Amino acid sequence: MPSSASLSPAQAAARLEEFTVIDVRAPGEYAAGHVPGALNIPLDKLPDALPALKSASARGSLLVVCASGVRSTRACEILAGADIEAVTLTGGTSAWEGDGRGLDRPEGARTTWPMDRFPAARWLSAGVGSGLVYSALSNTCGMAAVLSKLPHNRAPRAAGDLDATLEELQR
After folding, report:
1. Among 46, 86, 105, 169, which has the minimal tally of Cβ within 10 Å of its Cβ?
2. Residue 37: which residues within 8 A CB-CB, separation 6 or more?
């Protein structure tokens, strides 16, 4: 089983033409900027791509890249388990760009917030979802009650005076 190795941005740049570069980030991250010539195969899709990667590695070396090097190291472990030799870019695209090397950015691509990099964000969405389920079941909405207390959601005192309105109706 091959072991995974790593290259610094300078080492990788000097030999970039030798590599088939595989970027294992999510498609949105890849579109926001990637090592020139990199192909996108998200880490969660890597097992499906093993036959193609095996074929590519037979023709030349694989350089695996992510944002910081963590996911690409994991990808190299998966590839090593499938008897595919690959090296990772130390520090990922962050180090590549920090070393003064440019990233390819497709026309019109915008930076995304990579949710898969922040597992704790899942708890936030679970909390919001639970609140919505509670609201539906109880026919109440705590968020609406809180928002209605904000100053910009209250009518001016004169306009919202119920007693004055009732007096006007009595005349």
Report:
1. 169
2. 16, 21, 104
